[in-house]
Amino acid sequence: MSTRVVIGAQWGDEGKGKIVDLLSDKADFVVRFQGGANAGHTLKFDDKKFVLHLIPSGIFNGNADCVIGNGVVIDPIALVEEIKDVQEMGFSLEGRFFISQTAHVILPYHKLLDQLKEKRRGGDAIGTTGRGIGPAYVSKVSRVGIRMVDLLDREILREKIDQNLKDINFALQNLYKEPKLNTDDLMAELEDAIQLLEPLICNTTNMLHEGIKNNKSILLEGAQGTLLDVDHGTYPYVTSSSPTSGGACIGSGIPPTALTNVMGITKAYCTRVGNGPFPTELLDETGEKLRKKGAEFGATTGRPRRCGWLDLVALKYVVQLNGMNELTLTKMDVMDGFEEIKVCTSYKIDGKKTDVFPLCLDEIEKVEPVYTTLPGWKNSIEGITDWNDLPSTAQSYIRFIEEYLGVKFTIISTGPKRNETIVL
Ligand code: GDP
Ligand code: IMO
Ligand code: MG
């Protein structure tokens, strides 16, 4: 039995949702371990489309128990809306959806602060999703956070909100010149959501330990991507959590020694939403072509995604950082029709060639990508499910990436739907 972590190997939106959905029919548990409703994971099957933000992508395929781990920050109101949407689609979460007692809660003031802080940063804004992620993790590490377990006792909840509002109202009134919030209103705003979530809150850490003991298959679903990691990404243009394999352990309670597979998901090209460095970004018609063909618009905010060629220097760093031992390549079909495809195989920084991904912003911003040009293919590969049906130039493109990284692809995705997949 395996404990496999699925990690975004770029700046998010690599197709993690599609792949977790695909793999979940063989899993006993599917676990989200970090991030919050900043994630937008798109699933397509049987002519249905669903975008999940908080519920693990294992909910539609098979019968795995779906767990929101301790490392996730949960907006109770957003989660309840999502649960209702899933139920309206005719899927049941009954008896197979669990929320960690120790996951932190995103309160309406976290969302408000996220948006006000971004506005105040002006030209230096991170370009966050505005879902309250940063401020909620700030509350957590400042040790004033409210956890899911606190929702179960309204007296404790009231006390904690009261306490928090002292600082928050001070900032709202004095820094942002906004009206203050009051505890009664917040409690009332949350009450319906709390009632629905109460029975789902439990000790998921122990549940997963029991699963490991009983040789169950566990699939851990990362949100965001490694280059958005708060420690290892393009800081400060990152999210506030650890979307890496290390983060999977911290955010679930599963020990590192229990992990058997670390799967990285990469697109056949690169995208990024929000601000921050992007060495291979294409601001020309080729970038526009990728955005159009790949339908590159944010699943959470609808913002157009920035597009560029595949960056193997960044990808190699990500593979090493996570200890990835298997890879999935998504959106191969988007490369159809390109006469030539470029891949970045080294960087030039201040005229010096390197294949080491720089860690500091000023260096990353100076990167000039050095490209290797590979031949493209004319025919459409959309929906292909057999390796042998791929044009030889598409096969060579895949082999070139594997050789550079020293890790093999086990899944190639040729379309957004669950079955548009080559399993190797
Ligand atoms: P996630 O956040 O990593 O789950 O990815 P998103 O759902 O935000 O973005 C990936 C987008 O690409 C979604 O619209 C998917 O439906 C779509 N997608 C996934 N795999 C493929 C693929 O192989 N080909 C195409 N054309 N689209 C894909
Ligand atoms: P999935 O799971 C792509 C980006 C935001 C912004 C930065 C910080 O769908 O891959 P935040 O709201 O987290 O404080 O924003 O991170 N970002 C994502 N980009 N996919 C995501 O999630 C993202 N979640 C956050 O655009 O640049
Ligand atoms: Mg996404």
Describe the overall structure:
With about 425 residues, the protein is of the alpha/beta class. The protein has helices at about 15-25, 75-90, 110-120, 135-140, 155-175, 185-195, 205-215, 245-250, 285-295, 310-320, 360-365, 390-405; strands at about 5-10, 30, 40-45, 50, 65-70, 75, 95-100, 105, 200, 220, 260-265, 270, 305-310, 310, 325-330, 340-350, 350-355, 370-375, 410-415, 420-424. Bound molecules: guanosine-5'-diphosphate (GDP), 6-O-phosphoryl inosine monophosphate and magnesium ion. Guanosine-5'-diphosphate binds near residues 14, 414 and 415. Guanosine-5'-diphosphate (GDP) binds near residues 13 and 413.
What topology does this entry show?
Blueprint: E1 3-8, H1 16-23, E2 29-32, E3 41-45, E4 48-52, E5 65-68, E6 73-74, H2 76-88, E7 97-100, E8 104-105, H3 108-121, H4 133-141, H5 154-174, H6 183-197, E9 201-202, H7 204-213, E10 218-221, H8 245-250, E11 261-267, E12 270-272, H9 285-293, E13 306-308, E14 310-311, H10 312-322, E15 326-330, E16 340-349, E17 352-354, H11 361-366, E18 368-375, H12 392-405, E19 409-413, E20 421-423
Parallel strand pairs: 1-10, 1-11, 2-5, 2-10, 5-7, 6-8, 7-9, 11-15, 14-16, 15-19
Antiparallel strand pairs: 3-4, 12-13, 16-17, 16-18, 19-20
